[in-house]
Amino acid sequence: MSEDSPSIGTAAQIAAVFVAGGTGATLRVLLSGRIEQALVERLPYAGVLVVNLVGCLLIGFASAAITTTHWRNIVLGGLLGGFTTYSAFALFTVDLVGQQRWGVLGAQLGAHLVGGVLCVWAGFWAARAFGLGVAGG
C-alpha cells in the first residue's frame, strides 16, 4: 500500500477522522451559507463554488505538505473530505494527468460528471416515485 493510500487505522485515528470530517462539513455549511447570503442575487450557488475552489487549493497544499499517512487521513480524508469531496476529485484528476493515464482520466471525468448528474436525476425520480416531496429538480 502506498503512502497516499488510505488505510484502516486505530480507533483513535478513526475518531480523529470522524471529528475532522464533522468540522469540515460544519465549515462548509457556514462558509457557503455566508457567501450565498451575500451573493445570491448576482451569482446563485456562489457558496458551493467558493467552497469547492477553496477546498481544491487546500487539498493541493495539504497533499504536497503532509507526508504521513496518519495526518493525510485526518486532514485530506477527514477535514477536507468533509469540507468538499470535489477537492478529492480534483486531486486525483491532477494525479492521473501527472501519470499520463489518459484513458482512465477520461473515464473518471465522464463517470463523475455525467454519472453524477444522472444519479441526481435518478434520485429525484425515485423520491417522486415513492410519493415524497422533492425540492429542486
TrEMBL record:
It is found in: Cell membrane. Na(+) binds at residues 81, 84. It is a multi-pass membrane protein. It catalyses: fluoride(in) = fluoride(out). Keywords: Cell inner membrane, Cell membrane, Ion channel, Ion transport, Membrane, Metal-binding, Sodium, Transmembrane, Transmembrane helix, Transport. GO terms for biological process: cellular detoxification of fluoride. The chain crosses the membrane at residues 12-31, 43-68, 74-97, 109-127. The keyword Transmembrane helix applies. One of its GO terms (molecular function) is metal ion binding. GO terms for cellular component: plasma membrane. Na(+) is not transported, but it plays an essential structural role and its presence is essential for fluoride channel function. InterPro entries: FluC. Fluoride-specific ion channel. Important for reducing fluoride concentration in the cell, thus reducing its toxicity. Belongs to the fluoride channel Fluc/FEX (TC 1.A.43) family. This is Fluoride-specific ion channel FluC. The gene is crcB.
